[in-house]
Specification:
Blueprint lengths: L5 E10 L2 H7 L4 H17 L4 E6 L2 E6 L2 H17 L9 E12 L4 E2 L1 H12 L6 E4 H11 L7 E2 L6 E9 L8 E7 L33 H11 L2 E5 L6 H12 L7 E5 L9 H9 L10 H13 L4 E6 L5 H14 L3 E7 L8 E5 L14 H4 L3 H13 L10 H10 L4 H9 L6 H11 L13 H14 L3 H9 L9 H8 L6 H13 L4 E5 L2 E5 L2 H10 L6 H13 L1 H6 L4 H10 L1 H14 L1 H18 L2 H12 L7 H17 L3 H18 L2 H16 L5 H18 L2 H17 L3 H18 L2 H17 L3 H17 L3 H17 L3 H18 L2 H17 L3 H17 L6 H14 L3 H15 L8 H18 L1 H11 L4 H10 L1
Parallel strand pairs: 4-6, 10-13, 10-14, 11-12, 12-13
Antiparallel strand pairs: 1-3, 1-4, 2-3, 4-5, 6-9, 7-8, 8-9, 15-16
Helix pairs in contact: 2-3, 12-14, 13-15, 14-16, 17-19, 18-19, 18-21, 21-24, 21-25, 24-25, 25-26, 25-27, 26-27, 27-28, 27-29, 28-29, 29-30, 29-31, 30-31, 31-32, 32-33, 33-34, 33-35, 34-35, 35-36, 35-37, 36-37, 37-38, 37-39, 38-39, 39-40, 39-41, 40-41, 40-42, 41-42
C-alpha cells in the first residue's frame, strides 16, 4: 500500500504498566504480548492503516483518513477488552492526532506532529482512546454536519465523542482540546487524564516545542528517581532551564503536591531566596520568632515538611553559596522533597548528583550531508523548527544541507546560538549564514570543538548578532537590561527613550529585536510582556554604561507607580494598583536595590509607598528586611524619611507579632516625628504603638492616652485615612471599656471614610470588625452579612491575613448559632492558613477558639493542648491579651476531667488577672469560673482550697505562664 504522507493521522498506543507486568508475570506475559500485537496489527491493517514502528510494546500507526484511525482504535479496544487474559491483563492507552509528516522511505519526518501524537496518547489511561481537537475537526468535517453530535457507524454500534475540555499536555506548549472516543464494548469511565492540569504546578507554557534530548531525558529521570538533589550544570545557552521544565512535566505524576519552578535570576540579595521560593509556591513569608532568617525558614519548612513535591531552583550561579545552603537545609528537613537545580556550576553540597548538560547532538561537516541524514541530529531538528517559525517556506535540500551541517557544527550545538542563527533565515539563505559564521568565529575553525570554552562560543554568537544591529537597536538592547523580571512596552518607552530615540521608535525597535531573537515576548494575564533570556541580559548589561540615565529613569518610573495616591489620580484604584505592583515585583526590588546604593532618599520614599502593598499582601517579612537593610546602612537622609522607614518597619513587626521590636522601632520613629513636629507622622505612629500596647492589659491607660492624642491630631490635620484608622482602633478600645454603642459609631465612621477613599483592604478590615460587633450582640444575620462582604474583598485581593481573620469570625458566628461542627471547620480552616503564613497574633485566637469548641464536644485533653499552645505562642511574642481567656478554658477542661485542684489554680489565676485590669473574657464566663471555684471548695474541702489560694496569689504573671507550660 502507499504510505500516508502530507497530512497524516497518527494512532499511537502503549500498554499501561508494562514494566510491572513484566516483573509480576514473566512467564505468561510473552503469550499476552503476542495476542496484543496480533490484535493491534489486524485492527490497523483492516482499517487501511500502516504500522510503521513498534518500540517494545508501543505501536506507531499512520492513516491517510482520520475516520479509519478512529475505527481501528475502537476495533482494537473492543477485541482487547473481550480477550480472556490469563494473568497478565493487557490494558492499552491510545491517542490519535493529525498533522504534517513526510515518509522518507524508512520513517516519518515531522517531529512536531509525532511528538504531539505521543503526548496525546500518554495522557490516556489504559483502555481509553483520546483524540486531539485537530483530528476531531477533520472527522467532524468529513461528517458534513457541524451542528449535530458526531457519530460514526460501526459494526459494534455508533462511535461518539466526549468533550474533555482543554488540557495541558506534558510538552508544555499551548493546551489542546481532547475528546474521548466512546463505543459499545469499551469502558467509558476512567480516572483523570494524565496531563499537567492533574497536579498542582506553576510550569510556564512554552511558545515552541522541546527538541532533542531523547536519550538524555530517560537517564536524568533515572537519576532523579534515586536521588533528591539533581543539578543540571553547564554553560549559558545550553538549555538547562528548558530541559528541567520538560523533566518536571514528565515526572509530575510522581509528586502528589506537584512541581514548582523558582526563578532566581531576578534576585540580587541571597537573603530573598527563601522568600522567592515562598512566592513561587503561593505562600507568604511570615516569620514566627524574632530571628528573620529563622522565621522565614520555619514558615517554609512548616509548609514543605510533609509535602511530596519537586522544586526547580533555576539559575543558581550568581547566588551559588546561598543556594547550596538553602537546598541542603530544605532537603535535610523535608523528607519527601526533591530539588532540580540549574546552574553554570555545581552547588557542591551533600547528596548532590550532577548532570552536565552538553550541546545538542550535531553532525560533523563532510562532503555529503543529505537531508535524511541530518534530520537524525537534535541540533539540526532544532534549527529547522525555529527556522520554519520565521520563514514557512524554508526547506532543507541537497544543495543547502552541507551549509546546515556546517552551521550546527560551528555553533557547537548550543541551543541558544542555533536559535539565533535560525532567526536569520528570515533575511539570509543558509549558505550566507554559514559564510558569516566562518568569518566571525575563527576560533571555531582553529581547533577541535571540544577544546573551546563554550561560554566564549556563546558570547561570540551574541557578538555577531549584536553587530548586526543598527546603533539605535544596540542602545535599546543594552538599556532594556535595566529591567528585572520582564517589562511592558509602556515601561520601555518611558525609561529607555532619550533625545535621539523618541517614544514612537521604541515600538519599532522592539519589533526588530524580537525578529532577531534578542528579546522574547509572553502574554501574562492578557498583558504583553517582554524579557531576555538570562544569558542575553548579562551580555546586554556589559554593554550598558553604569552611569547611563536609564537607571535613574527606571527608578523614577517605578517610584511613580509605587505611589498609590498618584495612581488614583490617574484613575487606577487600589485593586488595579495591587495587580500592577504584583506584575512588576522584581522591577521594584531592582529599583530599591539601585536606590539604596545611589539615591537613599528615593529608596525611603519607595519603601513608604510600598508599605501598604506589603501589608495588604501579607509580605511583612520582605518589607521588614528591606527596611532594616536600609536602616543598617549609612543612612544619610532628611529626618522625616528615616522616621517613615522606622515607622513602616514597626508596622510590619507588629503584624508579624514581634511586639518588642515593633515598640522599639515605633518609639524611635515617634521621637523623630515629634522633633520635627510632623503631625501626620505623630498620629499614625501613636495609633500603631497603641495597637502594640493594647495586647498588654497592664498598659491599657497608655493605649488610651495614645489613641486620644492620635484622634485629636488626625482631626487637626484633616488626613481622612489616619482619621479612619483612628476610629477603627478606638472602636476596639471602646469595646474594652464596655461602651458598645461608641464602638459601633467609631466603626461605622471608619467604614464610611474608607469607602470614600476606596481603600478596599481597610474596608474589608472594618467590615470584619463590624461583623465581630454584631456577633457579640448576637445579631448573627447582620454579622454574616458583614462577614460575607469582607471575605469577598479579601479573596479578591488575595489577602491571606484578612481571609484568616474572616474565617475565625465565621467560626465565632456559627459557635453562637450552636452549629459547632461548622464552627470547628471554619476555625480549623483558619488555623491551616495561620500556621502556613505564621500570623502569630491571630494564631493565638484560632487555637483558643478550637480549644473552646473541643470542650463543648467533650474532647478535653485535645482542648488543653490547643490552649497551652496558644499561651506558648503568646509568651514567645509578648502577647498576653488572651491569657485570661486561655486560663478559663484550661480551668474548664480540667474541671470536666475532675482534676479539681488543677482546675482551681487556673480559675484563681483568671480571677487574679481580671481584677481591675481588662482582659477579653466574657462576663458570663467570669461568673461560671466563680461558680466552679465555689463548687471545687465543696469538693476538696476548705483547708485544701485555702492552701491553694495562698499559693496562687503569690504567683506573678510570668510564673502563671511557666506553670501552665510546665504542667
Amino acid at each position: 500500500m502507499d504510505k500516508p504522507t502530507g497530512t497524516v493521522t497518527f494512532l499511537f498506543t502503549d500498554i499501561e504498566g508494562s514494566t510491572k507486568l513484566s516483573q509480576n508475570f514473566p512467564e505468561t506475559l510473552p503469550e499476552a504480548l503476542d495476542k496484543h500485537h496480533s490484535i493491534l496489527t489486524e485492527a490497523v491493517e483492516s482499517n487501511n492503516g500502516f504500522v510503521f514502528k513498534i518500540i517494545g510494546d508501543a505501536f506507531c500507526c499512520a492513516f491517510q483518513n482520520a475516520e479509519d484511525a478512529v475505527k481501528a482504535a475502537v476495533d482494537a479496544q473492543i477485541k482487547l477488552n473481550s480477550e480472556e487474559w490469563k494473568d497478565a491483563v493487557i490494558k492499552v492507552r491510545m491517542g490519535i492526532h493529525i498533522g504534517n509528516a513526510e515518509w522518507n522511505g524508512t520513517d516519518y519526518m515531522g517531529y512536531i506532529t509525532l511528538a504531539r501524537s505521543s503526548r496525546v496518547m500518554s495522557a490516556a489511561n489504559g483502555g481509553q482512546i483520546l483524540i486531539s481537537d485537530k483530528a476531531y475537526e477533520v472527522v467532524n468535517k468529513n461528517k458534513n454536519d457541524t451542528n449535530q453530535e458526531i457519530r460514526i457507524e460501526h459494526g459494534a454500534g455508533q462511535i461518539s465523542f466526549r468533550d474533555l475540555g482543554e488540557r495541558r499536555l506534558k510538552d508544555l506548549i499551548q493546551p489542546v482540546k481532547l475528546y474521548q472516543i466512546l463505543s459499545p464494548g469499551i469502558p467509558s469511565e476512567f480516572p483523570p487524564l494524565k496531563t499537567l492540569d492533574a497536579r498542582a504546578n506553576n510550569l510556564p507554557r512554552q511558545l515552541t516545542n522541546f527538541i532533542g534530548r531523547e536519550y538524555e531525558i530517560p537517564e536524568i529521570k533515572k537519576i532523579l528517581a534515586v536521588s533528591r538533589l539533581l543539578t543540571l550544570s553547564g554553560p549559558g545557552g545550553t538549555g538547562k532551564t528548558r530541559l528541567s521544565l520538560q523533566i518536571a512535566a514528565d515526572v509530575i505524576d510522581e509528586f502528589a503536591n506537584g512541581v514548582w519552578i523558582v526563578e532566581l535570576a531576578p534576585l540580587f540579595d541571597p537573603e530573598l531566596i527563601l522568600l522567592k521560593i515562598c512566592e513561587a509556591l503561593g505562600i507568604n513569608e511570615q516569620p514566627g520568632d524574632q530571628t528573620q532568617k529563622g522565621d522565614t525558614e520555619s514558615t517554609l519548612l512548616n509548609y514543605l515538611k510533609e509535602k511530596e513535591l519537586l522544586l526547580i531552583l533555576d539559575n543558581c550561579e550568581h547566588l551559588i553559596r546561598a543556594c547550596a545552603e538553602k537546598a541542603e537545609m530544605l532537603l535535610r528537613n523535608c523528607p519527601k522533597l526533591k530539588i532540580i537545580a540549574t546552574s553554570r556550576e555545581a552547588l557542591r553540597c551533600e547528596g548532590e548528583v550532577i548532570h552536565k548538560v552538553l550541546s545538542l547532538a550535531h553532525p560533523e561537516p563532510k562532503d555529503i550531508n543529505t537531508p535524511l541524514e541530518l534530520s537524525q541530529y537534535e541540533a539540526v531538528r532544532l534549527f529547522i523548527e525555529r527556522a520554519l517559525a520565521v520563514n514557512t517556506d524554508f526547506r532543507v535540500t541537497n544543495e543547502n544541507a552541507p551549509a546546515l551541517a556546517q552551521v550546527c557544527y560551528q555553533l557547537d550545538g548550543i541551543p541558544l546560538a542555533i536559535e539565533l542563527a535560525a532567526a536569520r533565515i528570515k533575511i539570509l539563505p543558509l549558505e550566507k549564514i554559514c559564510e558569516k559564521l566562518d568569518d566571525r568565529f575563527r576560533l571555531l575553525t582553529g581547533g577541535k570543538r571540544t577544546a573551546l570554552p563554550r561560554q566564549q562560543t556563546l558570547k561570540a554568537m551574541i557578538d555577531w548578532s549584536y553587530d548586526l544591529l543598527n546603533e539605535k537597536e544596540k542602545i535599546l538592547f543594552s538599556r532594556l537590561s535595566v529591567f528585572t523580571g520582564g517589562w511592558t512596552l509602556d515601561a520601555a518607552e518611558e525609561i529607555c527613550r532619550d533625545e535621539i530615540t523618541d517614544i514612537f521608535e521604541i515600538m519599532d525597535l522592539h519589533s526588530n529585536l524580537l525578529d532577531k531573537s534578542l528579546i522574547n515576548k509572553t502574554e501574562v494575564n492578557g498583558e504583553l510582556r517582554f524579557n531576555y533570556l538570562e544569558t542575553m541580559k548579562q551580555y546586554a548589561k556589559e554593554k550598558l554604561d553604569p552611569g547611563d540615565e536609564v537607571f535613574k529613569n527606571h527608578l523614577n518610573f517605578f517610584l511613580k507607580i509605587s505611589d498609590q495616591k498618584e495612581m488614583e489620580v490617574s484613575g487606577i484604584d487600589q485593586k488595579q494598583w495591587v495587580k500592577q505592583i504584583d506584575s512588576e515585583a522584581d522591577n521594584f526590588r531592582a529599583a530599591l536595590q539601585w536606590a539604596a546604593e545611589n539615591d537613599q532618599t528615593a529608596a525611603c520614599i519607595m519603601i513608604n509607598n510600598l508599605t501598604d502593598y506589603w501589608n495588604l499582601k501579607g509580605s511583612f517579612m520582605e518589607g521588614l528586611q528591606i527596611c532594616k537593610k536600609l536602616l543598617n546602612s549609612n543612612l544619610n537622609v532628611d529626618e522625616i524619611h528615616k522616621a517613615n522607614v522606622l515607622y513602616n518597619a514597626g508596622v510590619m513587626s507588629n503584624y508579624l507579632g514581634i511586639l518588642t521590636e515593633a515598640e522599639k522601632l515605633g518609639s524611635e520613629s515617634l521621637i523623630i516625628y515629634r522633633k520635627i513636629d510632623y503631625k501626620e507622622g505623630i498620629s499614625k505612629c501613636l495609633l500603631m504603638l497603641g495597637v502594640v500596647f493594647h495586647v498588654n492589659p497592664s498598659r491599657i491607660n497608655q493605649t488610651k492616652k495614645y489613641y486620644d492624642e492620635a484622634l485629636l491630631l488626625a482631626k487637626e490635620t484633616g488626613n481622612k485615612s489616619i482619621l479612619a484608622n483612628a476610629f477603627f482602633n478606638m472602636s476596639y478600645f471602646a469595646v474594652s471599656e464596655g461602651n458598645n454603642d461608641l464602638a459601633l459609631e467609631y466603626r461605622l465612621q471608619s467604614l464610611e471614610l474608607y469607602r470614600k477613599l476606596k481603600n478596599f483592604h481597610q474596608v474589608s478590615m472594618t467590615l470584619s470588625g463590624l461583623s465581630v460587633y454584631e456577633y457579640r450582640r448576637q445579631d448573627y444575620d447582620k454579622a454574616l452579612l458583614y462577614n460575607e462582604e469582607s471575605l469577598a474583598i479579601s479573596y479578591e485581593l488575595n489577602d491571606k491575613y484578612l481571609i484568616s481573620i474572616n474565617l475565625i469570625n465565621l467560626g465565632n458566628i456559627y459557635k453562637g448559632l450552636k452549629d459547632y461542627d461548622s464552627a470547628f471547620r471554619y476555625y480549623n480552616e483558619s488555623l491551616t492558613l495561620l500556621r502556613e503564613y505564621s500570623y502569630k497574633s491571630s494564631l493565638i485566637v484560632a487555637l483558643m477558639s478550637l480549644g473552646e469548641i473541643l470542650i463543648i464536644k467533650g474532647e478535653y485533653k485535645e482542648a488543653i493542648d490547643f490552649n497551652k499552645e496558644s499561651i506558648r505562642i503568646g509568651k514567645e511574642n509578648a502577647n498576653e491579651y488572651f491569657l485570661a481567656a486561655n486560663l478559663y478554658f484550661l480551668g474548664s477542661a480540667y474541671f470536666e476531667l475532675k482534676d479539681y485542684e488543677t482546675s482551681l489554680r487556673y480559675f484563681l489565676n483568671v480571677k487574679n488577672l481580671t481584677e481591675g485590669v481588662y482582659n477579653p473574657i466574657a462576663a458570663d464566663n467570669l461568673k461560671i469560673a466563680e461558680e466552679r471555684r465555689n463548687k471545687i471548695r465543696e469538693i476538696i474541702g476548705n483547708d485544701n482550697f485555702e492552701k491553694i489560694i495562698s499559693e496562687v496569689t503569690k504567683m506573678s504573671k510570668d510564673e502563671i505562664v511557666d506553670f501552665v507550660l510546665g504542667s
